[in-house]
Request: fold
Amino acid sequence: MWRETITEGQVRTALMQQVGKAKLYPVFFGSAITGAGVRELLADLINLFPSNTSLEEAPLSGVVFKLEKEATGEKVASVRVFSGSLLFSPCPKGCSLIGLSRPTPNSP
Reply:
């Protein structure tokens, strides 16, 4: 009988390819309360869903999907950027908001 050993690397490569083609959807289990599985989730999110750097030069496109108000009164907006880039601008003294701007060709 012929047997072939499949390595973990081969499985991960095949998994990443299938996820990239939207033919396979990984499911993660964990607990935000105890932190169980959070480290694995974050590591695999980076590996299985890499950012598409080819869209960084495209026009800015995104959506605010969540607004929160902190106990201090500070407002926080969570943004999903689909293309382009966001840079944080310096905030003038006494300013309580963080300004966002599109990168320019001269940006660092």
The radius of gyration is 20 Å. The chain has two domains: 8-48, 54-101. Helices lie at 8-20, 38-48.
